[in-house]
Hints:
By secondary structure, the protein is of the alpha+beta class. It has one domain (3-97): 2-Layer Sandwich (Double Stranded RNA Binding Domain). The chain is 42% helix and 14% strand. The protein contains four helices and three strands; from the N terminus they run βαβαβαα. It has a three-stranded antiparallel beta sheet, with helices on one face.
Amino acid sequence: xxxxxxxxxxxxxxxxxxxxxxxxxxxxxxxxxxxxxxxxxxxxxxxxxxxxxxxxxxxxxxxxxxxxxxxxxxxxxxxxxxxxxxxxxxxxxxxxxxxxxxxxxxxxxxxxxxxxxxxxxxxxxxxxxxxxxxx
Length: 135
């Protein structure tokens, strides 16, 4: 089951506060900044394996209480910031749960080897020419 198919809305805790973003006088009186708090360990929609992967990959965004904390304050509207922080949440989870790409070993091409060796020869001649020079 894909992360975007799950509805985490019941597990979100939103708080609004005054933003430091654009808005002039509006910033001083309207709470447009939105914090999203999601308790990772008490989530019913994630299995234990997914929780462990998320906890490992998003360590910097998870506090001591086990809450994933995200903030949005770029817009003047609280609603737009709320939509942005929800989109950010889903994007982060999808990115964290995506399996790493398998790396295939490749040999360097003949041209790249020759280019590297040629640059070494050039560097060597430059350094060798310095030794002959005396004051």
